[in-house]
């Protein structure tokens, strides 16, 4: 990547033409499937369309309840240009609010922590955990100003199986009923009870769809992870489920000649209710558009993405473990070891995906055919086609 020259400033693609190309690849089965056109990964106009027709309408994962177990716990996240704070309020409920001050727009809080109120650093207006304005110094002389009528805008949110989702549209139906089959399948992983062992964040120099696709397909183990994942979870054994509409999944079983214990060596307590087949499997789930869940016999790799621009994506991963793991004297060492191997694998993905983004901008880049091992790539492409259709 060191030899990569500066990107050439090209005129954007004709959006109408691009949409025709995008839709012409739809309605196929897996064995006839093809990728989206490369311009769907490089066109700013197409990204803007995804923002309005997908991200502004869908339920987007912002975090896991394990990040805010106690009343007053909060974390912040910026998504689609909106500055949000996710907080456990005084009633114990998870609440998501805008954190842009109602005075002159400074963010009232940053980062994460525990608070009784959010006090804006600019002029010290203060808000309760429910977003109500509780203090506004030197505003008592001001005409027609009633602090009681000032509340930080509340964002629609739902917690499903421990994941906190937000939705910026009031028309979108509730998410929980549409995830019923996912919740059923995830039951043995106790998702809503899990705690955060550690967090990893990456800035990805590529489009959000590349991040989802690479998470979901294991075909690339043969190349990008030849020295790591391929040995135990060879891509050729992976398989994908039928699309469930709101979510889909792929599976990467352990090599048959290896014992199940090969997936149990981390020192973390394994999930008690898994079948042997589940112990041997690493499941890869996406709740569309970009909540990525990797299941392991003893932990969950929980990920959400923040699409920043057409070719830039923030990747936030929480590794979730059972609450019993908090008792382990060596939890920190276990986490450090897992973090190091997780980073190695992530670096392998990030390098190849940045090059893929670079290649997609060539005028010779074209629609590609996909392997039967890439069912999730085909399914995501059809999801995007469905969502952006008029
Ligand atoms: S901008 Fe927040 S108090 Fe002035
Ligand atoms: Fe990978």
Written account of the structure:
The protein is an alpha+beta fold and 390 residues long. The two termini are 39 Å apart. The chain has 7 helices and 17 strands. The protein has 2 domains: 15-57 and 180-388, Naphthalene 1,2-dioxygenase Alpha Subunit, Chain A, domain 1; 61-167, Rieske Iron-sulfur Protein (3-layer Sandwich), CATH 2.102.10.10. It binds FE2/S2 (inorganic) cluster and fe (ii) ion. Fe (ii) ion (FE2) is lined by residues 214, 220, 224-225, 349.
Features:
alpha+beta; Naphthalene 1,2-dioxygenase Alpha Subunit, Chain A, domain 1; 2 domains; 7 helices; 25% strand; globular; binds FE2/S2 (inorganic) cluster; binds fe (ii) ion
Distance N terminus to C terminus? Answer: 39 Å
Radius of gyration: 22 Å
Looking at CATH, the homologous superfamily of the largest domain is: Naphthalene 1,2-dioxygenase Alpha Subunit, Chain A, domain 1
Number of helices: 7
| CATH secondary-structure class of the largest domain | Alpha Beta
What is the residue-averaged pLDDT?
A: 96
Helix share, percent: 10-25%
Beta-strand portion reads: 25-35%
CATH topology of the largest domain: Naphthalene 1,2-dioxygenase Alpha Subunit, Chain A, domain 1
Q: List the strand order in the largest sheet.
A: 1-10-9-4-3-2-5
Which ligands, by name, code or SMILES, are bound?
FE2/S2 (inorganic) cluster, fe (ii) ion
Tally of domains: 2
User: Quaternary status of these chains?
Assistant: single chain
What sort of overall outline do the alpha carbons produce when their principal axes are compared? globular
Unreliable runs:
none
Helix-strand category:
alpha+beta
Q: Could you state the order of secondary-structure elements as H and E?
A: HHEEEEEEEEEEHEHEEHEEEEHH
Strand element count:
17
Main β-sheet, in a few words? 7 strands, antiparallel
What is the architecture of the largest domain at the second tier of CATH?
Answer: Alpha-Beta Complex
